[in-house]
Write a structure and sequence with these properties.
The protein is of the alpha/beta class. The protein has a domain of 133 residues: Ribonuclease Inhibitor (Leucine-rich repeat, LRR (right-handed beta-alpha superhelix), Alpha-Beta Horseshoe), CATH 3.80.10. 17% of the residues lie in helices and 11% in strands. The chain has 14 helices and 19 strands. The strands form two sheets. It has a 17-stranded parallel beta sheet. It has a two-stranded antiparallel sheet with strand order 1-2. Helix 2 packs across helix 3. The longest helix has 13 residues.
Length: 507
């Protein structure tokens, strides 16, 4: 099976955009660390002590203000940090309305994190812009703000970060209104169908831009020429823009401060990669799903600062891997769905810094795993579709630092799991699709008490085997689909022995 950068296979759930899509349909911070991180401390339960943390006096006051928010007409007399905390609490609890927002006019707030907030539209922008020179970051992702709404931000000239992901009503005309915000360091217009190459011309004046995200913007072909003068740019994300071609790579050749470049699922070929030869500061390069071959890897040989290289679903074979042998800083390589074979993996044996390796490909076998035993620092090993057998699991003993492991090619029995049971650092283990595994497997891994996620779906696991999971107190996710186990069985185990289990299948 061939997988694209934006649409992947597998039986487990894969959320696009790092899990940021959800309850509102376009963009959501549900489950996002920044959603919680920007809010004040919440009443929390200490799982170890089983006690509720006593809130501070400030927290109690802010909770009370939230409850009585309709009684307040202005917070402008409060210190900025307190007004900011009140604002954050209202957003977090979704108690902020257009009316209550008015109380924050001229409060000199610095950060307005309103991504996907219900009801956000142009009429809110007047109060948002009243923060003027104090405003440093604003997230209006997934809102109904239009081009006209962006006019209000013209006077917020100290803005350093702006996110407009999934903002369907912003076009080239809206970009014109932010052309004077020369202090911007971060700008994101992810998944926007309205922005074109012509609209990107306004970016040429944002000379302090460090990070630009145009993921899934299908109309920007030819517009990257306007980035030529953005010499401070360190991160550029244009993945899943299938309009991007080799010609778009040429303007990037002078961006010598680029450290991260994502061009996956584009039309960039070997010729386009030649323009990247001089980007010696690159530490992350994502070319997943691009029509490149092993020939292009010669251009990467001099990028000695590369740490992360994604070649998933590219036409890479064994021959090209010789050009990676000098990239001794590499910590992560993805070779899934390439045509690399066991023989080619021998060329990776000297990359001692590797901590993450993805080899999800049917042509990889036990022999390939044997070639990698020198990579003792591996922490993440994905052999999802590789044809690994019980015999091959003997080589896993060399990877004592493994935190996550996937072996789902169908070749394992309980005997092979014996070589996994001593990998005590594992937090994620996926053994799905191995339909010969029995309850004995659960007994063998019962000592892996650090496990947070376990998948043994499509196996012969039964209700009787669930008793062996009682020791896995850290388990949060459990997948036993297509096993002789019911949701009721798991719920019972959850209630008695696995208090942290929040996701399970069958459900």
């Amino acid at each position: 099976m061939m997988g694209g950068a934006c649409s992947r296979k597998r039986d487990q759930q894969v959320n696009e955009d790092s899990g940021n899509r959800g309850i509102y349909g376009r963009y959501c911070k549900s489950g996002s660390s920044k959603w919680l991180g920007n809010s004040i401390s919440r009443l929390a339960v200490d799982n170890k002590q089983g006690k509720t943390k006593c809130p501070s006096l400030m927290e109690l006051c802010i909770y009370k203000i939230r409850e009585d928010i309709d009684k307040y007409s202005s917070f402008s007399m409060l210190p900025r940090d307190i007004s900011q905390q009140i604002f954050n609490e209202l957003v977090y609890s979704q108690c902020l309305t257009e009316v209550s927002l008015g109380a924050f006019r001229d409060c000199a707030l610095q950060d307005l994190d309103l991504g996907e907030y219900p009801g956000l539209e142009d009429s809110w922008m007047d109060v948002i812009s009243s923060q003027e020179l104090s405003l440093l970051s604003v997230d209006l992702s997934g809102s109904d703000v239009t081009d006209s709404g962006l006019i209000h931000l013209k006077n917020c000239t100290n803005l350093q970060a702006m996110n407009f992901n999934y903002s369907d009503q912003i076009s080239d005309h809206g970009l014109e209104h932010i052309s004077g915000l020369s202090n911007l360091a971060t700008l994101s217009f992810r998944r926007n169908n309205q922005i074109t190459a012509q609209g990107l011309s306004v970016l040429s004046g944002l000379v302090n831009l460090l990070k630009l995200d145009l993921e899934r913007c299908p109309g920007i072909h030819g517009g990257l020429v306007h980035l030529k003068g953005l010499t401070k740019l360190e991160s550029l994300n244009i993945k899943c823009c299938n309009c991007i071609t080799d010609a778009d790579m040429k303007p990037l050749s002078g961006l010598t401060n680029l450290k991260e470049l994502q061009i996956s699922s584009s039309k960039v070929s070997d010729y386009g990669v030649t323009f990247l030869k001089g980007l010696h500061k690159l530490s992350l390069l994502n070319m997943e799903g691009c029509p490149i071959t092993a020939a292009c890897l010669d251009c990467l040989a001099g990028l000695t600062n590369l740490e992360t290289l994604n070649l998933d679903s590219c036409r890479i074979d064994d021959e090209g891997l010789v050009n990676l042998t000098g990239l001794t800083s590499l910590v992560s390589i993805n070779l899934s769905f390439t045509v690399v074979t066991d023989s080619g993996l021998k060329k990776l044996a000297g990359l001692a810094s590797l901590t993450s390796l993805n080899l999800d490909a049917r042509q990889i076998t036990d022999a390939g795993l044997a070639s990698l035993t020198s990579l003792t620092g591996l922490m993440h090993l994905d052999l999802f579709g590789a044809r690994i057998t019980d015999s091959g699991t003997n080589y896993l003993k060399n990877f004592k630092n493994l935190r996550s492991l996937e072996i789902c090619g169908g070749g394992l029995t309980d005997a092979g799991v014996k070589n996994i049971k001593d990998l005590s650092s594992l937090t994620v283990l996926n053994l799905s699709q191995n339909n010969n595994l029995t309850d004995k497997t659960l007994e063998l891994i019962s000592g892996l008490t650090q496990l947070v996620s376990l998948n043994v779906s499509n196996s012969r696991i039964t209700t009787a085997g669930l008793q062996h999971l009682r020791s896995l107190k850290n388990l949060k996710s459990l997948n036993l689909d297509s096993c002789k186990v019911t949701a009721y069985d798991i719920e019972k185990l959850q209630s008695t022995d696995l208090p942290n289990l929040v996701s399970f299948r069958p459900e």
